[in-house]
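Hey,
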Amino acid sequence: MITTLTLPEVEALARAAHAAQTDKAGRPYAEHLAAVAHGVRARGGDPDQIAAAWLHDAVEDHALTEEWLATAALSPRTKAIVRALTKHPGEPPESYAHRVLTTPGALLVKEADLAHNADPGRLAVLDEDTRKRLTEKYARMRALLGLPA
């Protein structure tokens, strides 16, 4: 019988994988992961979605590899959500949104991710040009995903 990683194990793994990374405001990247996981839990997400929230940027940010994900002790659904949320270089936002929308469970994780990314307190510490660019980017993605503004 194959056992999957527990949520505390996934959290510890994600924190370790992203330990050297910071967000655009210079904060430890794990704070973003924790906020997204909390947002998924608060929105009624299940353990697969919470695990995916902790790992949603791991492959995209090169904290973990696709090869690691393929063999990791995670449910197939968690892996599918992480893959759906992993942006590919040069990928049009429409293609990314379509993948999120067609992967069961991914939209709720992306909604929590966008909510934290667009948090006014988080954006307030950024310079005006960056804040404006990101606000427009997040609003466009919310529209493509059919989420309220």
